[in-house]
Design brief:
By secondary structure, the protein is α/β, with parallel strands linked by helices. The chain has helices at residues 20-28, 48-58, 73-83, 102-113, 144-149, 162-165, 177-189, 214-228, 233-249, and strands at 7-13, 35-41, 62-66, 88-91, 97-98, 117-125, 131-136, 141-142, 159-161, 193-204, 255-257. InterPro entries: Glyco_trans_2-like, Nucleotide-diphossugar_trans.
């Protein structure tokens, strides 16, 4: 491990007062300590900002930024990417958490395999933080062609190398812009993203999430192909069919249920 390697962690927030403290603490408890946490608030109206400020006052590697008006996840994350100084960039949404060895193990893995993009398996929990005893398994290698079919990278687990790829920004779509960011990173790398089998993070399943609303999922996936990638209507519809086949017959098998203790 190279302790001089800086990892920039990007967290976008909006009305996250019930979750943000746990999220920040999961970064503070990382066994790898050479990181900076850039938190960008998208004009929250609850107590999110005061919680973030209390952490930023105590820790000089936690940096706080805010939007004067609500601009959406893409603009908010991109502001963090622009301000980042790290050799690697990782993302952690304001309601998710990392396991303590996430950065240490993932960074070691990327350096060992000379990977430009990596991701890992992750566990699922309820909105209230209770374990669902389910894990979404990362596939070992993910090339651009397969990645076009379905989003295989959980944003809370992804990391990319800014020294080899430069900074990769998200297009300004309200939803699914994280998929497009990772697609751009894999395409620019010209080699597969590498998946870690071990679960290194925990994703909070929210009642209002896209994945919980299948019709919304299809609508926003269509916009990924149509607006994000600039495909024709016919080609976009073709990829929606490809997505459905991939999602139900391949990706759905990624989620495994563990025995309850």
């Amino acid at each position: 491990m190279k302790p001089n390697v800086l990892v920039s962690v990007i967290t976008a927030t909006y009305n996250s007062e019930h979750f943000i403290e746990e999220t920040i603490n999961s970064v503070l408890h990382q066994t790898y300590t050479n990181w900076e946490l850039l938190i960008i608030d998208d004009a929250s109206t609850d107590g999110t900002i005061s919680i973030i400020k209390s952490f930023a006052l105590k820790h000089n590697n936690i940096k706080f930024f805010k939007n004067e008006a609500n601009q959406g996840a893409a603009v908010t994350r991109n502001k963090g990417i622009k301000e980042a100084s790290g050799d690697f960039i990782a993302f952690l949404d304001a309601d998710d958490v990392w396991k303590p060895q996430k950065l240490e193990k993932q960074l070691k893995f990327m350096l060992e395999y000379n990977a430009d993009v990596s991701f890992s398996s992750y566990d699922l929990m309820t909105e209230n933080g209770l374990p669902l005893h389910k894990t979404v398994k990362a596939i070992p290698k993910l090339n651009y062609k397969k990645f076009l079919k379905c989003n295989y990278i959980g944003n809370l687990t992804g990391m990319y190398n800014t020294k080899t790829l430069g900074k990769i920004y998200a297009p300004n779509l309200r939803k699914r812009q994280d998929w497009l960011l990772w697609l751009s990173a894999v395409k620019k790398s010209n080699k597969p993203a590498i998946g870690l089998k071990e679960s290194l993070a925990i994703y909070r399943v929210r009642k209002n999430s896209i994945s919980s609303k299948k019709l919304d999922l299809l609508k926003y996936n269509y916009l990924v192909y149509k607006k994000g990638l600039g495909y024709s209507t016919l080609k976009s519809l073709y990829y929606i069919i490809v997505f459905l086949l991939e999602y139900f017959f391949v990706k759905s098998k990624q989620t495994v249920t563990s025995q309850k203790m």
